[in-house]
Amino acid sequence: MTETIQNSVISVLIENESGALARVVGLFSGRGYNIESLTVALVDAERSLSRITVLTSGTSQVIEQIKAQLKRLIPVHAVCDLMEEGPYVGRELALVKVVSRGESRTEGLRIADSFRARPVDTTATSFVFELTGSPAKIDAFIELMRPLGLAEVSRTGIAAIGRGPSVFHVNEEHV
Amino acid sequence: MTAAAERDATTGNEALNGAEVLLRVLDEQGVEVVFGYPGGAVLPIYDALFKQDRIRHILVRHEQAAVHAAEAYARSTGKVGVVLVTSGPGATNAVTGLVDALMDSIPLVCLTGQVPTKLIGNDAFQEADTTGITRPATKHNYLVRTPGALAQTVREAFEVARSGRPGPVLVDLPKDITVGQAPLTAPAMSRLKRFRHQGGPDAEAIARTVQAMKTAKRPLFYTGGGIINSGPEASELLRRLARKTGFPVTSTLMGLGAFPSPDPQFLGMLGMHGSVEANMATHGCDLLIALGARFDDRVTGRVDAFSPNSFKVHADIDPSQIGKIIRVDVRLEGDVRDTLQALLDAWDDTPAPDLSTWWNQIASWRSVDGFGFTQDMTPSAVIRPQHAIRRLYEMAMETGRDTFVSTEVGQHQMWAAQHFQFAEPNRWLTSGGLGTMGYGLPAAVGAQVAHPDALVIDIAGEASTLMNIQELGTIAQYRLPVKIFILNNQYMGMVRQWQELLHGSRYSQSYSEALPDFVKLAEAFQATGMRATCVGELDDVIRRMLEHDGPVIADICVAENENCYPMIPSGAAHNQMLLGPDQDSAAAGLTEEGMMLV
């Protein structure tokens, strides 16, 4: 009875208070849940709400537990499973440093162009490319850069939002 | 009363410091007793305590004991238990108690001192990252950073502790906040409305449950600590529902007392050391209704073999518990009291179904008498621990007094659960989830403080009780007439039992070397010590213990090698119970073939 492991993108609206992120991260580590990536930033200054997007994986029972456990945290206002709710857009930003000369350098620039990666820093021997897209696209870009002088990578993890007019928000009565 | 008389120059309100504001809010929350231990960072609070007489402070001898005492106070009264300890080691010593309360859903507010805000992060004397350390040890915690936030934070801490699934909440109080002036702000609207279950139990889920109840041939109620937490009314509703339906009832360790143990409809505790009839009925039922229980691994045994053929209903106030371990057919989110009321309303005047075949099967399992034992009654015979607890129970009942029992953790705890009977909720105080040795003695302190006229007994093992034995000092100071009933087998009995059964009888470090003389130990703490070394002395010791109006340690020397049965080995199914050396499990019908008879 082995169950399939699925990916899940979970968005959390959480009070922007000291220790709030630690509660979420501690929940994942303490209960042995995966974090593939996690992003967090203030999204509603007026109501002091941050949005956390977690890319995680597990059996359907584990994903259900993750959501239920998140909802128990006192600063958490709302939890949304974007994959379950319908189509969504997930985007990640990466900064990729490539150090190379000659043939590799021009080849790197050509590939970057086809990925719509923008050089945001250029020297005679290096580029820093800025690239946004799905994690898979960024993975593919990095693999192509590897033989061409790939030196350093910084990725944000995905930010995600549901497609269409429906909105993930907190219940106004409860704020 | 100098401070209280002063007025704030600008507002004209009473000028209070943070410590005084704290005590005002505790009083407003109905707090009568605080269990604590002073230290540098909480001196302002102790100074404020000194100047008032509404809140009583019980001085324990170790911060862990303060938390266990507050747990028992809470468990035996239904109120929130309150703890007050200092920063650094005061807070870290409290951590075991906090996790214990978290696992067993006990409402607590733990107030910890902290170094002044300016020093936080500087490795100051007695500084610890208390909110960091206790984040996974509490339901929620707070660090009060501004005087203006103090009153409302403490109020919210009480609300979090007692609402929904109860639990421990910690409030960390930097010394500058308690020393400096703080406003006694008016109670603000709760920001926790989203945690309240709206609109009562789901009508469709209730209807599906009652439909299943009407057609079930082999139904079973499996009740847990949630019924105790919900309050005495929930226990009363459970009794009414059981009467109306005629269904059998089993309980977890934490739920004992919600349904009267002596009742013929009660099958006893289920799980690793549960009764034969409870475990076989759980395995064989066709409808399992879990009420305020969480399918702990000590209850389920092997999860994929747990109650394999039943329709499962799970009622719990904490949605995250439903479907966590066992997939269920019906979810009933909400306070179990409301769920029980809704089930009673929907059942209405339906006559109790004919369950005679099921009850006959249960009777045959019951006849195995898995808790049975034979006590040699020759006066010089060795006392068997089960016999000691049975006699303690019988003689305690003869006193007619309201009786509270706490336990430590291990064999004696399981024997107490098996052989001591509880007719009412809130009388049984034990560490279930965390299994904290050293719980029972401070728990007895908390229960006796809450119920000064009641009979409070700590059923203990000689190893566990030594883990918080310093509380004999607390017992002496407040003249608490606690009875410490030690089943002394000179072993960490449950460790010894597992070593015998699973580790080739290699008794690694489980012998209690160099035990104190418990009679002399009692005397050293102004208590009365007694000892029974053979069965002929047992009744007399119990009688004298119960008659004595002060604290007693009764050192009951029991058989060293007794094992606790029945036992479901870890990872085994409920129909694979070990019944003990004298009984053949197959002969008792505890096999799949036996199950076919159901």
Automatic annotation (TrEMBL), chain A:
It catalyses: 2 pyruvate + H(+) = (2S)-2-acetolactate + CO2. Keywords: Amino-acid biosynthesis, Branched-chain amino acid biosynthesis, Transferase. Residues 9-84 form the ACT domain. The keyword Amino-acid biosynthesis applies. Pathway: Amino-acid biosynthesis; L-valine biosynthesis; L-valine from pyruvate: step 1/4; Amino-acid biosynthesis; L-isoleucine biosynthesis; L-isoleucine from 2-oxobutanoate: step 1/4. Its EC number is 2.2.1.6. PROSITE patterns: ACT. It comes from the Bacteria. It holds the Pfam family ACT_AHAS_ss. The keyword Isomerase does not apply. Catalyzes the conversion of 2 pyruvate molecules into acetolactate in the first common step of the biosynthetic pathway of the branched-amino acids such as leucine, isoleucine, and valine. Belongs to the acetolactate synthase small subunit family. Dimer of large and small chains. This is Acetolactate synthase small subunit. It comes from Gluconobacter japonicus.
TrEMBL record, chain B:
Its cofactor is Mg(2+); thiamine diphosphate. Its EC number is 2.2.1.6. Binds 1 Mg(2+) ion per subunit. Binds 1 thiamine pyrophosphate per subunit. Residues 206-343 form the Thiamine pyrophosphate enzyme central domain. It catalyses: 2 pyruvate + H(+) = (2S)-2-acetolactate + CO2. The keyword Transferase applies. Residues 17-131 form the Thiamine pyrophosphate enzyme N-terminal TPP-binding domain. Keywords: Amino-acid biosynthesis, Branched-chain amino acid biosynthesis, Magnesium, Metal-binding, Thiamine pyrophosphate, Transferase. It is an enzyme of class 2 (transferase). This is Acetolactate synthase.
